[in-house]
Amino acid sequence: MQRSRFELPEAAIWNPSTREFKILPPSSIQHPPYFSPFEETYLTLDNVSFDNAAFGFDSKNDDYKVIRFVDLTFVNSEEENPHPHFMDQVELYSLRSNSWKEIPSPDYTPTCTTLGNNYVDGICYWKTKTGAYLDFRGLILSFDMGNEKFSILPIPEFVGSFPEYYVDLLVFNGSLGDIVYPSQRIDTSFDLWVTSEGVWTKQFNIKSISGVVYPLGFGKNGDLFLRDTNDEVLLFDASTLEIKKLEINTYLDHFRFAISLHAYLESLVRINGIQEVEKYVIRQPTRNASNEY
User: Fold this and answer.
1) Torsion angle in degrees (nearest 10) through CA of 10, 69, 154, 220
2) Residue 30's closest CA among 83, 100, 94, 108?
3) Rg value, the chain, Cα
């Protein structure tokens, strides 16, 4: 079995309510020798990366699970400038068994970083696609935590077409949604579509927000979090149509495009981890107690 020549990053889950961290076991993915029919030789494993992880609850088995996509890169170590070859795999972690297992990889893989953890009623969602650059069709890849199966859903053509529009998945008021905005983002408008039992409905349109670069997701009151051209985090109140600049400096020590918004639901479920180290955790309230997000 081909082994990696580098250390793999650790993954962890965190429950802010019980203030526990749990370092997850090492990856269970096997690194099989890769035979290239074009080069007629076995290739060397050059890199392993983990992407598009999602967390959710399996009510069927009363279990919390983490799913992640594993990208293996192989090269011909004999070549000076080797051409990389890629292999995709998927693994699933169970809190109940405290172990990973490899599961069959779908025909489609996530295409972009998602806006937070798109999990609704036991199912995780990612954006994917099929077709070439100008002829590609947007699709939604889903994974059911209970039966551990992947499925494909269409993104309706009427929500926006590439390359004129970006379409990002997110969760809005407990339902899966699409937020659609033009790729030319000088003055950006947003359309929100939400699906229920396969039917897409347009919820609202937010017109011409100057200087906004990227949507981050919705709070529990339906307010939209945004990032502007100065890397500031903004809050758009859909009921008053007002924008407020938030003093959230999450990007100071991080790569700014990796900023994401995650909905938090309080839970006292023990994860049998270790207590968080206070000096590494910064808790910054965003509103007063009478007007929480």
Assistant:
1) -10
2) 100
3) 21
Q: Which of these, 259, 217, 269, lies nearest to 16 by C-alpha position?
A: 269
Give the contacts of 186 (CB within 8 A, at least 6 positions apart): 210
What percentage of the chain exceeds 90 in pLDDT?
18
**Gap between the Cα atoms of 10 and 25, Å rounded:** 8
Find out whether 153 and 139 touch, Cβ atoms under 8 Å.
Answer: yes
On whether the CB atoms of residues 278 and 16 are closer than 8 A, the answer is: no
Distance (Å, whole) CA 217 – CA 194: 13
| Alpha carbon 264 to its chain's center | 15
- Write out pLDDT tens, residues 59-118: 999 999 999 999 888 888 877 778 888 888 899 999 999 999 999 999 888 886 666 788
Handedness of CA 55, 56, 57, 61 (dihedral sign): negative
pTM above 0.70, yes or no: yes
Cα 123 from Cα 120, distance rounded (Å)? 5
How many Å separate Cα 290 from the centre of its chain? 31
Report angle CA 21, 22, 24 to the nearest 5 degrees. Answer: 145
Copy the structure tokens of residue 10. 């650790």
CA distance 278 to 245: 27
Mean pLDDT value across residues 241-251? 71
